User: Fold this.
Amino acid sequence: MTDLLYSQTSSTQIQNIGIISPSTDRLQSLQRQVPVVGDKALIDLVNGIQVSKDIIRYRKSRGFFGQLFDTLDNNENKRRLLLDGNLLTGQEALSNWVLELSGSLWISQLALQVTQTSLLEARDAIRAQKQNLQQQKQAILSLSTNFDQLAQQVGTRLDHQEARIHKLEVRVAANEDLDRIIASWAAGQTYSQLNWVLQVALLAREVFSSSVARYELETGDKERYRQLLVNKILATSKELPKNFFALADLLEQAWRETKGSAVFPARELAAGLLEVRSIPHQRLINTPYLFAIGTTLELAILPEEAKVSKPASSAIALCRAQIAPISRTTDVREFITAVVEETANDCLAIMKGS
Assistant:
């Protein structure tokens, strides 16, 4: 308070010499921290000056004897102490208020700074989290795409593997059926009482009514088992003709050597299995050799009064006239190949429903 009062009473001298007192510097520093402190200090200073003026006015109004009396009873000293106390109290109040206000403002600024820092950290954390989420989303999308591609590749490979396994199963089944049929025929367990011409026709029908036909339908391979069957027949049959021969002579020999008995009517049974009269014409035009064999057997089993002298020649003539041109001469391989091809194609056509 004394410093403040000193700064107020001697401001003229300080300004004249250009030196700022510590109390003034402190007040200016407080004012820079809190701009309104100057207004409050001015008001408190004015109030303090007003009180001091009242006390001084009272002292001047006292006469000589009054002043002497005040000196003797120590009243003057009390008034001076009161004046100094008043000024000191005002200065302390002013200083405390400014310090309190400055401290409150500092705390507020600090709280705002901490809050701002926390908000900035929260914003950075949110941005980082958002970026991480975006990266995770991209990673998940990439993983999903890779998984879909992998699933598609695995599915494609599984389909290929299943197709290969199925094809292998069909091929194995065809091999097993072919081996079983040929083994039974070579052992004389099937068709043993028939001429080899009729055996070839019935053997081919049995082979292409098995899994071999399914193999050809699913794979489109029409050479493997047909050539294999022809080779197995040629390798197994030891008494086949070696040279060219007339087809009519071959068919005549076939029905004459197939006689049978009352227990096993081989000729009638073969005629029933190879008959062609119930087959549609669109199928017969693709099987001229089978038509000639079946027609020969049908003519051969007619009653004596209706039987022709040469059933084979008559059957070939009917085939050439109604079905398709057919060669009058052939050899063993050509004949067996033709019978196998016609039988295989006919069985496939039946299975396709055409």
In short: Residues 55 and 83 are 7 Å apart (CA to CA).
